[in-house]
Amino acid sequence: MEIESRLLPCGLHVIGEPPSAMEAVATLVNSAALTRPEDGISSLPAILAETLGRDIEDVYMGSDKGILRDVELLRQITEASREPLLHLWSEARTRRDRADREKLRVLFKFLGECLKRVGADNELRSLKQALEGKYIKPGPGRDSIRNPKVLSTGKNIHALDPQAIPTTAALQSAKVVVDRLLERQRLKTEEVRTLSETVRLDARTKLLNPKWYEGILPSGYEGVREIEKRLTNTVG
Predict the structure, then answer these.
(1) Which superkingdom, per the lineage (predicted)?
(2) Alpha-helical regions (H) of the chain
């Protein structure tokens, strides 16, 4: 239910009905809650947590574990995120001064572009063109919270964009899973069975990095040739 409420903060959409001010704000707040490393954008909760000397991921984990201090802090951060302009620019003067201004500038520039897209109303015009057999501009069909570039609505959507796989969230989750698997293997056998521990560490931390361009992965990964060379040298 929590995931559904974040992805669909205003429920199902009615075609041709533009969002109200509150609905637009709800969409922006949920968009601001996601860190987008491929675009150099920090989430608003992460920026607010930094002003208190905390890492938002640690706050999330502490809240999930039932640590009351983190539960309350997450509640406060969530409330502040719902009215970002009020809390960051009007009320909390000292906290605003301690916030990272460059991160805020990048985030609010991104949210400004999102607002333009959210408020656009192209659906009925596009529907009329489709019924007349005319060309409709294509666009991705993911949810607008994780990828605001699907907006404005009224496009001929396609469900899958191969260039957008893997996402940064998937890569981050994969790194955690791989590290846990390697640690479990090490505890069982006292060693990690790979061709080279050095190659594994370099591939994991330095060499194998995705090439991002405007939030998509158009040209594979950096470091593949270097890894192949090291593997060849190790086997040889």
Answers:
(1) Eukaryota
(2) 2-7, 21-32, 44-51, 56-64, 68-82, 84-85, 93-98, 101-119, 123-131, 168-189, 197-202, 224-235
Contact residues for 160 (Cβ-Cβ < 8 A; gap 6+): none
CA distances from 14 to 17, 64, 71, 120, 123 (A): 6, 35, 36, 14, 10
- Please name the residue that has the structure tokens 């201004």: 101
Q: What is the mean pLDDT of residues 75-88?
A: 68
Residue after which a domain boundary falls, among 85, 101, 119: 119
What are the phi and psi torsion angles at 52 (to 5°)? -100, 5
Per the domain annotation, does 219 fall within a domain?
yes
**C-alpha to C-alpha distances, 66 to 45, 70, 164, 212, nearest whole angstrom:** 19, 8, 35, 36
- Strand, coil or helix: 26: helix
User: 139 lies in a domain?
Assistant: no
Residue type, 45: P
Expressed in angstroms, the distance from the first to the final Cα of the chain is: 54
Which residue in 87, 99, 93 sits closest to 47, CA to CA?
99
Query: What does pTM read for this prediction?
Result: 0.52
pLDDT at residue 59 tops 80: yes
Q: Is residue 7 located within the same domain as residue 111? A: yes
User: Domain limits at 205?
Assistant: 168-235
CA distance 151 to 63: 33
Which of 49, 84, 119 terminates a domain? The answer is: 119
